[in-house]
Write a structure and sequence with these properties.
By secondary structure, the protein is an alpha/beta fold. 43% of the residues lie in helices and 19% in strands.
């Protein structure tokens, strides 16, 4: 197998965590005789500083020529304190989604039992939670017409029928492979765009009679995610509601540093942790690299069809946690301080378990009868 992988570290802690994600991919390639060809590109604040553009044309060209992209994060504190700036790091992220036709964002909310105490929610409420979000990525207020005047501004929230239908199909197909439950989230009680959304989802649902389909308002969903997260299997929702709800759901997993994501369309997949650039800890070896590592696992499974290899990475993360190792964001008062690791050390610890699983697999193969 030969694949081209573009690494876009982006800003802040992006550089540190993508190093760990890339290292895991290199290890899997080495263990299995695959050829992964890596390249790098700029995006976000780093790209603005170098070229004046948050998404340089060269970056988009490289992305289009790749089989998959491993991304870090974009953002810088200077833009947070000055809302008048027109050129912003996040424009690069929106631009690459549009340029690659990435219309579906998949965010698994999987709780490792070892992190039940890391969340502020009661363990008995959380245990057994396994949610897969499908967030639409190329419509809604993020991409609608924008108007700004001295004392007036607006963002047009717009959806077309085909945009809703194509992500709904992907969500229903995924639900068929899981617990066959899908909850579509909108605000059809007040928004016309949500009324179209619900209408189209209801039409698509008729093609999947084996999937139990429900509809829930976004504000109700935000409450139910905390009250009873185990009721959800697949959640299908709009761009803006998905952005908000998945950040809320990160607390189910204990930290945003644990959440991977995949943005897919009809071409190369785009894989990223859901956390931001975290400039307050950038360069200090404090960031949690597990979301980037788990994003690499999603890449192997979704873009390359390597489910077994993806499971090896996920299991390596589980073993690291089971052995008590933590980064600062997921440590608690009971954590052995000698097992609180930095970014680099946590990445190396996961690699250690990935290598062990490869050796174990080869050993088993050798003792099989001829």
């Amino acid at each position: 197998m030969k694949k081209k992988i573009l690494v876009i570290p982006g800003d802040g802690i992006g550089l540190e965590v993508t190093r760990c994600g890339k290292a895991v991919l290199e290890q899997v390639a080495s263990d299995n005789g695959y050829e992964f060809l890596f390249d790098e590109a700029l995006m976000g604040h780093s790209a603005i500083e170098a070229t004046g553009d948050p998404l340089p044309g060269e970056t988009l060209q490289k992305a289009k020529a790749s089989d998959a992209i491993l991304f870090g994060a974009v953002g810088h504190i200077k833009y947070d304190s000055d809302p008048t700036l027109k050129v912003r790091p996040e424009n690069g992220l929106l631009g690459i989604r549009k340029g690659l036709g990435l219309y579906a964002n998949l965010r698994p909310i999987v709780l490792f039992d070892e992190l039940l105490q890391a969340s502020s929610i009661k363990p008995e409420v959380l245990k057994g939670t396994d949610i897969l979000f499908f967030r639409e990525l190329t419509g809604d207020a993020y991409f609608g017409e924008k108007v700004r005047a001295a004392d007036y501004s607006s963002d047009l929230m717009i959806y077309h029928r085909y945009e809703v239908e194509r992500i709904a199909v992907k969500a229903f197909e995924a639900a068929r492979t899981r617990r066959k439950k899908l909850c579509s989230v909108d605000k059809a009680n007040v928004l016309e765009s949500s009324r179209l959304w619900r209408e189209v989802v209801q039409e698509v649902a008729k093609r999947y009679p084996d999937v139990e389909t429900t509809h829930m308002y976004a504000d109700t969903t935000s409450m139910q995610l905390i009250k009873n997260p185990r009721q959800f299997d697949v959640i299908l929702t709009t761009n803006i509601f998905g952005d908000l709800l998945t950040d809320e759901a990160s607390q189910i997993a204990g930290s945003m540093g644990m959440l991977a994501s995949a943005s897919i369309g009809d071409g190369a997949g785009f894989y990223e942790p859901v956390h931001g650039s975290a400039y307050d800890i950038a360069g200090q070896n404090k960031a949690n690299p597990l979301a980037s590592i788990l994003s690499a696992a999603l890449m192997l499974e979704i873009s390359f069809g390597l489910k077994e290899e993806a499971n090896r990475i996920t299991e390596a993360v589980r073993q690291v946690l089971k052995n008590g190792y933590r980064t600062g964001d997921i440590a608690d008062t009971a954590t052995d301080k000698s097992k609180i690791l930095g970014t680099k050390e946590m990445g190396e610890k996961v690699l250690e378990f990935v290598r062990q699983s490869a050796v174990s697999k080869k050993g088993k193969a050798e003792v099989l009868p001829a």
